[in-house]
Amino acid sequence: xxxxxxxxxxxxxxxxxxxxxxxxxxxxxxxxxxxxxxxxxxxxxxxxxxxxxxxxxxxxxxxxxxxxxxxxxxxxxxxxxxxxxxxxxxxxxxxxxxxxxxxxxxxxxxxxxxxxxxxxxxxxxxxxxxxxxxxxxxxxxxxxxxxxxxxxxxxxxxxxxxxxxxxxxxxxxxxxxxxxxxxxxxxxxxxxxxxxxxxxxxxxxxxxxxxxxxxxxxxxxxxxxxxxxxxxxxxxxxxxxxxxxxxxxxxxxxxxxxxxxxxxxxxxxxxxxxxxxxxxxxxxxxxxxxxxxxxxxxxxxxxxxxxxxxxxxxxxxxxxxxxxxxxxxxxxxxxxxxxxxxxxxxxxxxxxxxxxxxxxxxxxxxxxxxxxxxxxxxxxxxxxxxxxxxxxxxxxxxxxxxxxxxxxxxxxxxxxxxxxxxxxxxxxxxxxxxxxxxxxxxxxxxxxxxxxxxxxxxxxxxxxxxxxxxxxxxxxxxxxxxxxxxxxxxxxxxxxxxxxxxxxxxxxxxxxxxxxxxxxxxxxxxxxxxxxxxxxxxxxxxxxxxxxxxxxxxxxxxxxxxxxxxxxxxxxxxxxxxxxxxxxxxxxxxxxxxxxxxxxx
Length: 601
Known about the structure:
By secondary structure, the protein is of the alpha/beta class.
């Protein structure tokens, strides 16, 4: 059997460039250059497929503009009163998306002007991109300029030059301006592919719409010179449409953000020159289709849908989940406090925290909503083995909706490590358990029974798995330990290796009627692009542990979805914090103040 995205509306497939080509041919009716031509009157020959493709391009371009302007808020906002755009345009859909985005920004800000470079010449534009260009020319002729360039490659002819410049002149509206001298890159003399980029005020935004998923290496020297010249300019934000032109080749476009329109391409993952990845969902996967079973998926904000509605009017605090937290030490008391705060702020009905006795009074005064239980301390201020009875007594009185978080700030003292092992041996299998920080030790994995969630960062993952972080090693490790593994990083990845058959079905993996699990290669990896470098500070992992704990307690039978929901919520709140305050002058716990906003955005 095959389970499509109707069971996971919050996760969309990640496809390779070849798969995207097949997918677009199926939904848009084939190759644009073969199926749609312009008539002599300049009107696009209309058909159901061309109308659908044009609507998709408009949606992509507008979503791109909205996303770019939203990301500008992280550095104080788009300079709407003196903004300049530089748009690098190729032949096809990416160029069209960039043109429509530029049109949307020009329409929003009357003082903004734009410069355009047609890397392969204006005559090379395919029909939909040409339609986007004519729309721009019609609406904003006085606020746009086509920058002249010469002989980019053998594919560029003098016919192109006639469209871009006549006798060395560049045209903006009805005004003519002399082109500036070609920009030298790296101190070298300009090549034949150099552009006449204007000097003066910096560009607020550079949109890279040169190459899309059909690019095949190597990057030709002419195009590389364009990208190098653009890279040498002062630009506030460099945005790649779908993929940075040239992918990871030498001389490829270096983006601050890459905006995947409609489909996240597998080739973008791990590209350092792609910058931060954004997924713009255009609704391509609303219905089940073959792509729904992709082995890689991107988590969307739809995962938060259950938190955006009304609570059951007859529920009580126990129905909202009870989180138990075993955390903290004399060396790291703050980790326990942050974990508890996050669990409280992310919907848990009850939070009971077991922390070293010395901190109970101050923690209770600071966060009175939690139940603080003093745990006997070792001579060095860690959690002592003798306190295990406290956990046993409290768990015995708890309801069914409960989860246990172990690890934030516990340290590596031997007695505390022995305690963790004993707790796992006794209680794992009775309730969902999350292991974080110093509770992530290889020897503990042999003592646990599911349901289990592990939250390592890259270094901890290497220690646990003896492998470098990758999708393949994540799958293998998750299956080997039978856990949901949340591998934290610039792109956080989640994989469910638990042996429960219901989890297997939820992932869209089947044994073709046999009920047997397929190999690790069949396990989907869920990618969260949300968050960003504002999370690169101490304590953000402690917050995430508390948030996952709260979601596990509320949905103890759905640990994959609960984990993905917390990861996405954590990331969206971080982005809201960055837009409001920037990434530099914030405290980790300020993220919690944006959890509510993240649910409503």
